[in-house]
């Protein structure tokens, strides 16, 4: 069986269309044998096999799990399902690939393990969680692999019974996030999984209120200190991709917290608002030079600071980070701990007036919502172009819309103070 699978995998890598198509059909037939996943797993683990064949084998297992591992799969295709003994053997071998020296093998294996976990944990694979937590204490590559599994596995489908495991996982994630032993990519993964954990805690906060009340406040005290430390770090003059990605994930976590478990974030809201406001002030001038001002002498240096290339070569910007900060402010603005930063009562009339912070925030938001001179001229000449640019989600469109939504939220809560703040900002 193993030889047949290996030959079919080799054929799928052929440059000859006929050979490749015939091999793909052969694999579909071989998949109907319950010995197929074990044969493919043995090939994926075999150091003597070519790397291309090993990668093809683990990718094939990924598809197999979706199609033939469980009748509960949305992609299930009719055919025999492996028995528990065969599944256990496959699980063991695929898990070993999480420690592979090859990154592609590790990442695909992580996706396969996460997919298996949906069907097999905790009943058929009770040791999986503890195995992954143990892997979080391994090499940097193994930590990333385990985090990748958690990143695909930890989601709202987890039941109430798994909340105790989340309570074990979160301190491990915090340890990794707070350690300088790990690189920014690993920190990003840790924060991303933590954000998924917040989703689960939020869903179960009513049914497991006692657990949540006992565990969430100390969790947030530790996590928010580390999150704000990461957010406050200044950007360098260039090569800021890892830092921007980490800041963005940190803000996403804060947004999830303020939406999902708002009753617990109150004590931290002033410090969060202060950190975000500092970031908005720090980034405002570089943002304007990079994306708004025409022919700015600082355009190149600002662009180097705020634009970065991802692993696939695509250019990305500071946009998601800014939009995340705007959303957090929008969500938190009406809460009691933050309200005092936006409005104060007039000593004479008792009416609510905007604070100096609110005025300065309004002025800053207007800056972020600006369009370039070229865009203004183009739109003034051709309104159809304006409509097309907006519909096509233009380069600076997301930030402008995020600012507009923030203004709308502030108007809903502080109608008069916002109008006064905008008047002050326009002077």
Can you give a write-up of this model?
With 427 residues, the chain is mainly α. It is built from 21 helices and 4 strands. The longest helix has 24 residues. The model has no long low-confidence stretch (mean pLDDT 91).
Outline the fold blueprint.
Blueprint: H1 2-12, H2 17-30, H3 36-45, H4 51-68, H5 84-96, H6 103-120, H7 128-135, H8 140-153, H9 163-177, H10 184-204, H11 209-232, H12 241-260, H13 269-291, H14 299-306, E1 308-309, E2 315-316, H15 319-332, H16 336-342, E3 343-345, E4 352-354, H17 356-368, H18 373-381, H19 383-391, H20 397-413, H21 415-426
Antiparallel strand pairs: 1-2, 3-4
State the assembly state of the protein chains.
Answer: single chain
Structure class = mainly alpha
How many helix segments? Answer: 21
Give start-end ranges of low-pLDDT stretches: none
Number of extended strands? 4
- Please, what is the average pLDDT? 91
Strand content: under 5%
| Helix-strand sequence | HHHHHHHHHHHHHHEEHHEEHHHHH
Order of strands, main sheet, comes to 1-2
Can you tag this structure with a few keywords?
two-stranded antiparallel ribbon, 21 helices, 427 residues, mainly alpha, 70% helix, two-stranded antiparallel sheet
Summary?
The protein has 427 residues and is mainly α.
